[in-house]
Write a structure and sequence with these properties.
The protein is of the alpha+beta class. It has helices at residues 4-18, 77-93, 100-153, 161-188, 196-202, 209-217, 248-252, and strands at residues 23-28, 31-38, 49-55, 66-73. α2 (77-93) runs antiparallel to α3.
Amino acid sequence: MTDYSEEQRNELEALESIYPDSFTVLSEKPTTFTITVTSEAGENDETVQTTLKFTYREKYPDETPLYEIVSQENLDDNDVTDILKLLEQQAEENLGMVMIFTLVSAVQEKLNEIVDQIKTRREEEKKQKEREAEEEEKLCKLCLQPFLLFQQRFHGTPVTIENFLNWKAKFDAELLEIKRKKMKEEEQAGKNKLSGKQLFEMDHNLDTSDIQFLEEAGNSVEVDESLFQEMDDLELEDEEDDPDYNPVNLDSD
């Protein structure tokens, strides 16, 4: 017959010698105690920590002990959930044997993994911030490019809002002229046939070309009346002769 009390008493003595600074007995009936587990120091000597509370059942180790997390430092809710699942798994795998040292050791390894994850996460956050800073710097350079060109061209000239805006307008006009010349060259080479919209964008004189033509012609515009002399010969159907013709329906259309 198994003497559960003897096995439990022997394990308590062993745990007290292994964890002299973190082992605390809370009660003897039922036997309840805590063990504080701390990870190895990570970056900047940062650690994570948890205090585990164990209670022997009457037939421990043939029954799993009761366990819970009574306190923790630098752990989030997901970490706590993972530790509880780990304790459950280890308790089932070691059923029939004294297991507190095994459970605590498993939690110790888990805490070390969490510290490493924190370090990796911070390194990734640092790299992300560096990438964002580089992108922001590139964007600033792009935004300042016209201003930098202005400074290069007018080195030694005091920069004011007025002279910068004047130069910026000329700079944009030069870019537009280069674009127009390129479009004309492509049109001549047959690479890009300009649409009417593009033609009007390139030459605003086209907006008034027809009006200027009529004004210059004055009353000298000649109309060839012979083009309209044979209109009577055309067989045009009179809408009023159509039996289905209904002038009211025109409004609905």
